[in-house]
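Hi W.,

Here's what went into the run:
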Amino acid sequence: KQEVTQIPAALSVPEGENLVLNCSFTDSAIYNLQWFRQDPGKGLTSLLLIQSSQREQTSGRLNASLDKSSGRSTLYIAASQPGDSATYLCAVSGGSNYKLTFGKGTLLTVNP
Amino acid sequence: NAGVTQTPKFRILKIGQSMTLQCTQDMNHNYMYWYRQDPGMGLKLIYYSVGAGITDKGEVPNGYNVSRSTTEDFPLRLELAAPSQTSVYFCASSPTSGSYNEQFFGPGTRLTVL
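Here's what came out:
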């Protein structure tokens, strides 16, 4: 059974700092990995999708990497801003239904 | 495009009541999913559909039913609501299978069963 773990559970940083969020998964037979952002009381916004054949994806200040063989992904946020404060969820897609298995998330607070 | 829409946004039910959570997508996606999110936990898959007329169970299907009569709509039915079904429910859709199965989520329905 696929399990996804995110470390740390919470992170507080000063504005302008670069930071890394970590995600690990137990079964390397995945189609892709998605990083989402969730604001309090809101839905999920897709940030980046990395296909299983890719090593990384970039969008603006965000860079996500994938090492499928070791079951690890990182989300790098450059020059963090208070508006980046949210919960970041990692999810891997697998199985015949392509369902997403989610981690519990990392709560990020960026202090002005 | 409105994307994935869900109604209602909030609902309070009494134990034993029933209700239907509505989900509609206007992106002509074949795949649709229902997840639930409990506090401090990741999302868990309840049911999914790979096209109109085809549905199947996910990890936590007990107490729920679904139907998919059209490509656009994927309602989730709760029968005999229980306090354990207090959660936030998210509907998602995806255009295709394979490694580019990117899922797009609705805003969620926050359900409380008292």
